[in-house]
Amino acid sequence: MLIIFGILIILACVLLGFFVLIQNPKGGGLSGNLGGVGNQVIGVRQTTDVLEKGTWILAILIAVLCLTAPFFIGKSAKTQTLAPSAIEKAGAGAPITPSAPPAQLPNTPAPAPAPTPGK
């Protein structure tokens, strides 16, 4: 189900971007590019109305898909960690044990022993 919602959201975003890019900011849009045939068949006013309505519909569709997608994603799709984190252990009252010190790299010299006091 997650893949279906993802594909629908991406498709709607691409279409919305296309609709926004072909609109002229002054309201002309495709009406100037269609030529005489387009103006006779579709008309200038209907072209901008279709683009504006399409923009609103796609924006609303994206919002609805994004808000409803989490309700259709099952618990099996959520990630589960194998080992609980330190915050989860502290919340459960379990003692937190420190992790082991990092291992020494093979080519580094061993640290010098600490000087003894008095010598």
Brief sketch in words of this structure:
This protein has helices at 2-22, 35-41, 44-72, 86-92.
Explain how this protein is built:
- With 119 residues, the protein is mainly alpha-helical.
- Helices cover 54% and strands 0% of the residues.
- It has four helices and no strands.
- Helix 1 (2-22) packs antiparallel against helix 3 (44-72).
- Residues 36-40 have low confidence and may be disordered.
Task: List the total number of helices.
Answer: 4
**Unreliable stretches covering 5 or more consecutive residues:** 36-40
Give the N-terminus to C-terminus distance in angstroms: 74 Å
Helix content: 40-55%
Overall body shape: elongated
Largest sheet: none
- What percent strand? under 5%
N to C succession of SSEs: HHHH
**SSE-based structural type:** mainly alpha
What does the average pLDDT come to? Answer: 73
Describe the SSE topology:
Elements: H1 2-22, H2 35-41, H3 44-72, H4 86-92
Keywords, please?
mainly alpha, 54% helix, 4 helices, 119 residues, elongated
